[in-house]
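ingest -> fold -> write
write: protein_1
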Amino acid sequence: MKKPRKVPLRKCIVTNEQLEKQDLMRIVKNKQNEVFVDETGKAHGRGAYLKRDLKVIEKAEKKNIIAKHFRIEVDQSIYQALKDTING
């Protein structure tokens, strides 16, 4: 009998919930200090996860949580890209 595979869990930087990777969206800051939404989940750089929930994205935008997490100025287009991914 096969052992069940371990499901990778990640923490949402807004809600602090431990969730499966498929329930989250990854945002990355690379060495060039570019911040972008990582559709593949495999891009190089420092990653942060947000729950796939419009309310969570809006809270992150309102409190500027991504900028605080990466300690860098974040363009509003990042939040729009996250919303577009959810509404997709």
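write: protein_2
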Amino acid sequence: MATFALRPREGQIEPADVEPRAYFSDAELDRAREYRRPQRVIALTNLVVSGAALVLIAFRPPRRARDALARGRPYRTAAAAGVVISVGLALVTLPLGAVAHDRAREVGLATQGWADWLVDVAKAEGIAALFAAAGAVLLLWLLRRFPRRWWIAGAGAVVAISVLFSYISPVVLDPVFNKFEALPAGQLRSDVLDLARRSGVDVGEVYRIDASRRTTAVNAYVTGIGHTKRVVLYDNLIERFSRDQINSIVAHELGHVRHRDVPRGLLWVLIVAPAGVFLIQRLSERWSPPEARLGEGRATANALAVPSVLLALGLVGFAGQMASNALSRAVERSADAYALNLTDDPASFVAVERKLAVDNVSEPEPPRILQLVFGTHPTTLDRIGAALTWSRER
């Protein structure tokens, strides 16, 4: 319902039928297929392994761990449980991540050596473990303070955390992994500011990041809210794309700013969170062991309740992400239409989509079921087809 209510009403162009070989050679299609299909198998296996590990932790924890969670100091034990579960899930999926990274290096998509890659993995997991510990403590406090209806306060916490992360991520978390520098004075900055002026939007700041130290893939995105709002361009995009192509990409990102798509996503969370957290509470109450004493009175829940809540969170979050992805695809289609209207340059738009697919070794038309479940953007062929429809209608 939230996805239906918040989907953009404008800019939903019906794409024309596109034959892949009209824009991609057989060699390019074969290369993308040979790389992406095994990568998807690895990603799906990773998902299954993570889910199975959560199930085992929730339903068949080791006896000593079970006793420690039930009898330890509640908040200290909850924090430790959050760290152990986070690190444990990272370790069981690390071999699959290493295989995926190795294949990305072989195809020329990843530029990091093993040492640098492991440093980034350690950074990411360290941050994840810290947030897992804080989240587990917050969860236990909610369970003990509101044993019957903790989902109400929990929904408020989800929304507050989402807003906080949207605000601080560009200035606190993202710089941990990349170096950001404001786009220097020159033709590109002038083009960006001119497009922003024509769009009538406050773009915030425009940054260039050193993505090339990690990957040859190219990208651009809008992030942040309020004073942290910004447009971010990969350095390899700036170096390898023409001026008209970069303008097309920037126009797309300005479309997100113009349409307030980051606040739209936060509003989606606001609508979905109460029902989602309510379902998490009901599932976790059903799955928690008796020793957790979940929901039997104030200040009675202990850290043994944490694994079952995390399992419920994983399942509900996965289902919710499918609906969120449907909204994301509609949002991206609207931003595409905005870029076409702003630049009046469908040729550059099509060239961008073709080059993005080739440079990122992406399949122009992935399997439909996977696109439905995991796709955050329209397929490359759909985006090219939308540009063709736009041109014909003009």
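write: annotation protein_2
Strands lie at 180-182, 205-209, 220-223, 230-234.
The first helix runs from residue 2 to 6.
pipeline exit 0
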